[in-house]
Design goal:
Elements lengths: L6 E7 L4 E4 L5 E14 L5 E13 H10 L5 E14 L5 E14 L13 E3 L16
Parallel strand pairs: 4-6
Antiparallel strand pairs: 1-3, 1-5, 2-3, 3-4, 5-6, 6-7
């Protein structure tokens, strides 16, 4: 049986995403997602807890995230966890876990001036506007 490494989160961007490129010219976008959860306690009082998750999108998806999201926007991300470790300049070992985003869905419309009604984006796919047809009989 194969192992499973899958993450699905819904949350809000903590700050505007940062679009960068590698030396080879591949775009990547880093952003942090804040996701709330409620912990139900026996005493009847519920406690809210916030988790902060570092995310990275690559390629066309990185460009879409950078263009159509900003601080406070609510999104859903689907991806996998990636662990990386390195040694700092001072010789101290460091590590982190990031979510490598494979799919992203916009959960709020952003129809301000100049924005496209983008509904969702997948890594490597073109972004298409959602067609609206008022003549649908149902």
């Amino acid at each position: 049986m194969s192992d499973v490494n899958r993450v699905v989160l819904i949350g809000r961007l903590v700050r505007d995403p940062e679009l960068k490129s590698t030396n080879a010219g591949t775009y990547f976008c880093k952003f942090t997602l804040a996701s709330n959860r409620t912990i139900f306690q026996k005493e009847g009082e519920n406690k809210d807890e916030v988790g902060f998750f570092d995310c990275v999108a690559w390629g066309k998806l990185a460009e879409v995230v950078s263009k159509y999201t900003q601080k406070g926007k609510r999104v859903s991300v689907d991806g996998s966890l990636r662990f990386s470790s390195w040694e700092s300049a001072e010789g101290k070992k460091q590590s982190k876990v990031e979510i490598y985003v494979e799919n992203l869905q916009f959960l709020e419309s952003s129809r301000s001036a100049g924005d496209s009604p983008v509904e969702s984006a997948r890594n490597g796919s073109e972004v298409e506007e959602t067609p609206f047809n008022d003549d649908i009989p149902f």
